[in-house]
Write a structure and sequence with these properties.
heterodimer; A: about 450 residues; alpha+beta; Rossmann fold; Dna Ligase, domain 1; 3 domains; eight-stranded antiparallel sheet; B: about 170 residues; 2 domains; four-stranded antiparallel sheet; about 5% helix; about 35% strand
């Protein structure tokens, strides 16, 4: 691999460019007109403006991206996360254009992208899945009513073409099912172009446990441990940590091995994350989905293993063996990531656009900030609200929390509101300290926290 | 040795009268950080409508926030929807920068066209800010006088989007 085009923006574009530098690969950044002052542009070796602000005319424009890659002499493309990262059509188009796509092949993206098929694949690999059904359309309504007995309530209606926490509805009673199902199909059709909906048992008190996996082209399938991403709001992750405070060593080993049995069975390639629900009441892991890309929270795993996952992605995509050399800074026993979003938690996490006039974070041992913003930067309104990720390491979970508290309490941001004050409030809650949070905890308690 | 409440109050009083931005005291058992916080006015979504979901802060409020207590956001009145020239025209302004949509979703018709009659509380448009969509509503009844922004265009905070002729 000589030259890589990063088909993304924001903090992940910065991250990938850093890995390029380490690997001795030249980087080509692309940007929309709204991102003209974005940091990844001047970090890259070359940069090209690919269109106006709307993603459909820039970051999602496959033809344009391929044209720029060829014109700049790039031989590889990294899709980051979001945008085209799990778009099998893009992976296929790259392959047809003779470009290395940093990720698994299009067929694997297709397979895991269809949540119903992904569940089947997991089952075949001997991985337990959440009790649930195949996909249904509106015509199948009678069959659905029959299946409900098997699954039990409460249950979740999920879009087969959804994922990332989108396109989900909770149903608590059989009297609500028909209405909710019809609405879910309509929404799935509008949002994902595919109205197929399936059902899954819903666990009221569950933890979200995911395993970072890495597979190369030489038949080596490994895991890099698990992450606990239970602290969410409306199914969107806010905070992630590793290792999970809720699991025993035996459980940790179990879930990691389940993840690898899936990648091995599929003969997966490159980086990915296998996501599970952990029943906090009775124990037990259930596969929900697999993300066939690098994730926002990969940095947590890097902090506790010392492995540079994005660098390994480039190696794997080049056909090399994984290096898995730990970084100079020794890995930490525990790491927590705090997503710094431009949102006002006191006002229902309303987005807070604006120009950042001050952005100051304490640096030091055990403190890593992956960000693309700087004082004077105007946050574009056209993309997500993630300004940066603060990843804190500690020898114990308590130490990581305490260090997080110290750093977050003096992390100074002016010009936009951020989720930082919310995290300081959350850290004081006993359920957080005891590791007793479940996935809906923030949604259920946000009113009380801001009383 | 520890610091007393009285001593903290004394420090605060001294700081209040000074130009000091930040004060950090570290000693046995005590780590006190005081930072002068400038609150800037921030509009909320939706605003300037008959159904505000939350209240924006007042302009340029300065408070010294002891780091031990997290202060809660201030509540104040929403900014008024200013009538433009021609006393009966009411303007709908963008509560913050974002992307303006005239329709609820790409395959549905626009909420309103010029000349349509609307009632107080009718949906007029959608604003997208960082992937969050909010509907803006009419704060009065009347006829749509003008729609000043095209579908899917970027808008700035306070930009006039739609005007309603509320004269009878």
């Amino acid at each position: 691999m000589k030259k890589l085009l990063i088909a993304n923006r924001g903090e992940i574009a910065v991250r990938v460019i850093e890995a390029c530098r380490k690997a001795g690969v030249k980087s080509v950044a692309v940007y929309s007109e709204a991102d003209r002052y974005s940091r990844h542009i001047w970090m890259a070796d070359e940069s090209v403006c690919i269109g106006p602000a709307p993603a459909s005319q820039s970051y999602l424009d496959i033809e344009k991206l391929l044209f720029v890659a060829k014109a700049k002499g790039a031989d590889a493309v990294h899709p980051g996360y979001g945008f085209l990262a799990e778009n099998a059509g893009f992976a296929r188009a790259c392959a047809e254009a003779g470009l290395i796509f940093v990720g698994p092949n299009a067929d694997m993206i297709d397979l895991m992208g269809n949540k119903v098929m992904a569940r089947q694949a997991a089952s075949r690999a001997g991985v337990p899945i959440v009790p649930g059904t195949e996909g249904f359309t509106l015509a199948d309504l009678p069959q659905i009513m029959a299946k409900v007995e098997e699954i039990g309530f409460p249950l979740l209606l999920k879009a087969a073409a959804g994922g990332g926490g989108r396109g989900m509805r909770i149903v608590r009673a059989v009297s609500d099912l028909e209405r909710e199902f019809k609405q879910a199909v309509r929404e799935a059709e509008a949002a994902f172009g595919d109205g197929t909906v399936y059902m899954e048992r819903y666990f009221d008190k569950a933890r979200h446990i995911e395993v970072q996996v890495l597979s190369d082209r030489h038949g080596r399938h490994i895991h890099l441990g698990e992450r606990d991403c239970t602290i969410q709001r409306r199914h969107q992750k806010l905070i992630e940590e590793s290792p999970s405070p809720a699991l025993s060593d035996a459980e940790r080993k179990e879930v990691c091995e389940l993840a690898v049995s899936l990648t091995r069975t599929m003969n997966y390639e490159n980086a990915g994350t296998v996501e599970f629900l952990y029943d906090a009441v009775k124990g037990g892991f259930f596969f929900i989905e697999m993300n066939t890309r690098i994730q926002v929270e990969h940095a947590v795993t890097e902090m506790v293993t010392g492995v540079d996952i994005v660098y390994e992605q480039l190696r794997i995509a080049s056909g090399e063996h994984m290096e898995l050399k730990t970084s100079e800074e020794k890995p930490w026993e525990h790491a927590i990531e705090w997503r710094i979003n431009a949102e006002d938690a006191a006002r229902e996490f309303q987005p807070s656009p604006g120009t950042i006039t001050h952005w100051g974070c304490r640096q030091g041992r055990g403190v890593r900030l992956d960000s693309y913003v700087y004082p004077g930067y105007t946050v574009p309104v056209n993309y997500d609200s993630l300004l940066g990720k603060l990843i804190i390491g500690g020898h114990t979970r308590e130490e990581a929390i305490e260090r997080s508290r110290q750093v977050l309490s003096i992390f100074s941001v002016q010009g936009v509101s951020t989720t930082i004050p919310f995290y300081l409030l959350l850290m004081q809650q006993p359920e957080f300290k005891n590791g007793e949070i479940y996935t809906r905890w923030v949604d259920d308690n946000i009113g009380r926290l801001y009383d | 040795m520890t610091i007393t409440h009285k001593e903290i109050v004394e420090i605060l009083l001294h700081l209040e009268g000074s130009m000091c931005e930040e004060f950090n005291l570290q000693m046995d058992g005590v780590d006190l950080l005081l930072r002068r916080k400038v609150e800037v006015s921030g509009a909320s979504l939706p605003t300037a409508t008959s159904r505000p979901r939350s209240q924006p802060r007042s302009v340029a409020e300065k408070t010294i926030t002891p780091i031990q207590n997290l202060s809660k956001p201030q509540m104040s009145s929403p900014p008024p929807q200013l009538p433009a020239d021609g006393a009966s025209h009411v303007e709908l302004r963008a509560p913050m920068s974002g992307v303006f949509y005239r329709r609820p979703s790409p395959d549905e018709p626009a909420f309103v066209e010029v000349g349509d009659e609307v009632k107080d509380g009718d949906p007029l448009c959608v604003i997208e800010v960082m992937k969050l969509f909010s509907t803006l509503y009419a704060s009065c009844s009347g006829r749509i006088a003008s729609i000043l922004v095209e579908d899917s265009k970027s808008i700035e905070k306070s930009q006039v989007l739609i005007t309603i002729d509320s004269s009878n």
